[in-house]
Design brief:
about 80 residues; mainly alpha; 5 helices; globular
Length: about 80
Amino acid sequence: MVYQRIRNLREDNDLKQRELAEYLHVSQNTYSQYENGIIALTAEMVVQLAKFYHTSTDYLLGLTDVKTPYPRKKRQS
């Protein structure tokens, strides 16, 4: 599910694989393999993509269909 979601989000935002690859500091080929499920995304990559798309990791992982990210916890001083 994550592979389909990251492809759909990229296409919905009219982005090229190369652009996401640069953001993630990987090659375009590596990013393509993420989208095709050849290489598994690391937790760090899922978090980076969630931040990039302003969504939740749960949405990317297919645990929810709600794209809106969760509110962030406020740090205590």
